[in-house]
Amino acid sequence: MASRKRSEKRSLDQWLADYAVSHQNPINKKIHWLCVPTIFVSILGMGMSVAAWFTIVAAMLVAIFYLRLSTPLFIAMGMFMLISMAAIALLPLGFKAWAAIFVVAWIGQFIGHKLEGKKPSFFEDLQFLLIGPAWVAHTLMGKKIKSSA
């Protein structure tokens, strides 16, 4: 993965290309397609079970991050967040259940990276924790992502 200065503003394509470097193995990709959205929803679920107002504010800040990268991404992720919030409201799960889902999904992620033979992208830059869901959205929509390697 190309090392970049933190102050350098990356385009969505640059973020996705850098993320794709450590997500080439087909099994790792499938694990991420399942686990990344699961982690995202479980974080929202944990947050909503503790402090709904704080979780909604945090989700709005995440949406602004996506808007700065791409309007279509902002719309896609906004819809995903709204659907996730509706599902969370309908599911009778508490904090402990969401936390368990979170842990299991992260174990899956690390298994995928073990298979890949590369460390997770967020070890280099924590913003990759928000790029993972964008990568899943792009790949599931059939958009091609070129690796920066």
UniProtKB/TrEMBL annotation:
GO terms for biological process: sphingoid catabolic process. Keywords: Membrane, Transmembrane, Transmembrane helix. The chain crosses the membrane at residues 39-67, 73-91. It comes from the Bacteria. GO terms for cellular component: membrane. This is DUF962 domain-containing protein.
